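Quick log. Single chain, no ligands specified.
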Amino acid sequence: MIDLRSEPRVSWTPSREDILLFEKALPRAVITNAHTRQSRIARELPNYKRQYVGVMRNGRRELRVTLLHNSSNAVRDGSWLTAYLQVMGGGDNYGHVTFDPRTRRITELFPNGPK
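-> predicted structure:
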């Protein structure tokens, strides 16, 4: 877990519009992405909670989103509500997405590695 207050890359708060634009782009991206189109993420997208964080990379804003399945340990124990999670492993209980709010495009999308 990462405390957002100490993470130097975290530098802006996504607006409601940023999140809505991301959510509009996500379903299509999931079913067309080679890493996710055959995954549980594609089949059960409504069953994933999200954590949103704004970061700067090369002078540009990025929205980073962690996907957490309702059956994941982080959702079941509630830890996702109190800390930004960067989970290694865990399979498709977790996924990571990067969204460019300027271009309104998802630039990275992948499930976690095997459990």
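The chain has a mean pLDDT of 89.
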